[in-house]
Fold each of these.
Amino acid sequence: MAVAYTGGPHETSSYEKSLPIAIVASDVGGKCTTSFYGTSGAAPVAAGAFALVLEANPELGYRDVMHIIARTARIPSLSETDGWTINGAGFHVNDKFGFGVIDVGQMVSLAQSWTNVDGRYECYYEYTNVTRYEEKRNLYFKFRYNFIF
């Protein structure tokens, strides 16, 4: 849905360079490391960001947090403008970065004044059609299509 800065390579092709950003983390033997990147580095950064958002507004649900991420994420840098489009809801999106990089300050600020989105609802259509051939052989087909909003 969005990305978190951790530095290191994020290459999908050989012409891309590593970001000049690093996460400093504790390492074995009481040392520090600056090579803690990728999903291993991004997950705790994002978890910490979401903890701050939920601390700012404990009444948020998962759908609220998703809306906040989409509204506040930003394009990572001017050098990473390839592949961005605007979706049907008017948000910038990218196959590699989702809605962009999370902006914790903007997320917390928006969370403080956020009005929760309506609850999730589900619509479904059930289709049952039995022909004489199927009835003779006790074959019954039932299809259910779910639409979740």
Amino acid sequence: MSHWEKTVETLILSHKQISRIDNVTLEQFVNLRKLQLVDNGISKIEGLGRCKLLEELSLEKNKITSIEGVNHLRYLKKLDLGRNRIRRIDGLNQLESLTQLSMEDNEI
């Protein structure tokens, strides 16, 4: 059995009609640094429990309504949540490495 997932640092799954991050099965991608899930049907941030080294997360153009499921991502530097349905900016208190936050075209 191949373990190529453990060496992948960048994963781009944009425009794939993904409705849940769990469906992507990110459990094996333990060294993931950059994840792009742009233009899907994702409504909730979840399934990132094993992606502890993630530095960039792009969830632009989805159906996300609140910021949650990212507090454990202590190395996250860039978070793109533009073009979603978010009404409040909260849930980011523990992201001490965050240097870039994109929230354009939300319902704030």
Amino acid sequence: MTDEAHDDLQRLITERMLELGLSYRDVAERGGLPRSTVHYLASHGGAGRVPRPVTLERLAVGLDLPMSLVRSAAAAAAGLSVGTTSVNDPEVEVLIASLARLSPADRRHVAALVRSLLADGVQSGEMRT
């Protein structure tokens, strides 16, 4: 299956498993889920359905990811949008839309860069615009 065939939740699960060197069984045991559930979520498209909240919570624990990230990926996989407040700035819209296409590791790097830029602006008494 090519990357384009994977939905957001499938990509999140498989990329995180690769990043941490985890198997379906490892994720299942860490999160208290059946192995078959982890495998199903990683290998079958969302088909318009969002998994139950408890399943997403346990998946987040098993993958050691924030619940908000897992919830957003599951919603996107089901064709739903989460947090769609418009900022009326094309550059910000492109940045936000592009983040979903990055790997979890790359998103963490971007987040660290943003925190660093914001901290530099606060320390120097100026905010970047």
